[in-house]
Amino acid sequence: MTTDSSLRSGPGTTGRRSSSRDGGDGGDGGDGRAHGRLPGREHLPARQPAAAASAVPVLDVVVPVYNEEKDLHPCVVRLHGHLARTFPYPFRITVADNASTDSTPAVAAALAAELPGVRYVRLEEKGRGRALRTVWSASDAPVLAYMDVDLSTDLNALLPLVAPLISGHSDLAIGSRLARSSRVVRGTKREFISRAYNLILRSSLAAGFSDAQCGFKAIRREVAERLLPMVEDSGWFFDTELLVLAERAGLRIHEVPVDWIDDPDSTVHIVRTATEDLKGVWRVGRALAVGALPLDRLARPFGDDPRDRALTGVERGLARQLIGFCAVGVLSTLFYLALYSLFRLGAGPQVANGGALLVSAVANTAANRRLTFGVRGRSGAVRHQAQGLVVFAIGLALTSGSLAALGAASGSPAHGTELAVLITANLAATVLRFLLLRAWVFPARACSEPDSEDVR
């Protein structure tokens, strides 16, 4: 990939600001910054003085191009005119040339010399994702966006796209051609491919956004700094991968219905692009399945989360914890019963019950620690498991006592009767287990404090 130092930029290029801008966000200035906590989202200030407007734009719109000598000039002129008339903040337009072999560089240089706030960046390698990563990583604008050079999307959607990022409400924003209120003109083939692709994303990666490939997106800079190091793709799958990771990290993704007209002269190779996208879906899905991405560190660093505030007299997340505990409990009970039936084939009821409870208790504590009470990282994990074993001992006493009472009363009970007694005893132990986990093992005060590992 072309590094920042090797970029050839046209007039108006603004370099990366110093690392002092990261002060106070919990980053370490190196690789750790990708996992640091971000400051709370803030509404960006209104129009700045004229002297500062050209130096620090609020919005940087990237237009990635490859051999677009015909469409580039009218596109940038139209986009610049629209922003100058309607956008209430300082802006910049960056033409990112992906190793064009025609006269695109000359056209881009002429635009940069002609229009204030327009610059161009030359890359020696192709790839839309590579262009966006390079420009976004070097930009000093707090809001970063991109759009296709054909301007298929109506520009009236640009301000609604970036407004929630400027206000601090959202972290990313995308234009959607598949929203109910969108007005789209395109052929049946492209419509089918687009909807099929998004159906694949929903079914395989559990994506909640509606349109992954619309060339009309925006992101806050500090969010891009954390996410871009995790995105591997440098081509057309780049923004899909970015969205999937952002959604899994719990970020707010704002969707804007757009008016969109298909470009019949588009140079996108549909079959090759679809093949690469499917490869990307498989790669990201596999990484998520094996936990190869550190998304747990990005789950809640973005902005001011009211759940992180220390409030007195307020029960924190009781309803959510109950739901999580019940779900974990149901799965743990099924796991326990399966283990008991398995162990019972070669051991007596007391040994089978003790072994099944021990294994399921370790799994239950680990699941409740992460899913029910939201404790992440390795800090305190051994102590939590030790406390969980004490809770396990109480459950063992209840269930073993029930079995002993059953044996004394009936001598040799049937297997079905044993299971019924154990289920009843486990229901009683479940209530006590939740109270002990919530009040002793994972108290609200401890759960509300971030792990030291999460803020490094």
Give a verbal description of the structure.
The structure is a single chain. This protein has an 8-stranded mixed β-sheet with strand order 1-4-3-2-5-8-6-9, sandwiched between helices. α2 links the parallel β2 and β3. α2 packs parallel to α3 and α11 runs antiparallel to α12. Helices cover about 50% and strands about 10% of the residues. The N terminus and C terminus are likely disordered. The two termini are about 30 Å apart. The protein has 14 helices and 10 strands. The chain is elongated and about 95 Å long. With about 450 residues, it is an alpha/beta fold.
SSE map:
Layout: E1 8-9, H1 50-53, E2 59-65, H2 72-86, E3 91-98, H3 104-114, E4 118-123, H4 128-138, E5 143-147, H5 158-167, E6 172-176, E7 183-185, H6 188-205, E8 216-220, H7 221-227, H8 238-248, E9 253-257, E10 259-261, H9 270-290, H10 318-344, H11 349-372, H12 381-410, H13 415-441, H14 444-448
Parallel strand pairs: 2-3, 2-5, 3-4, 6-9, 7-10
Antiparallel strand pairs: 1-4, 5-8, 6-8
Helix pairs in contact: 2-3, 6-9, 10-11, 10-13, 11-12, 12-13
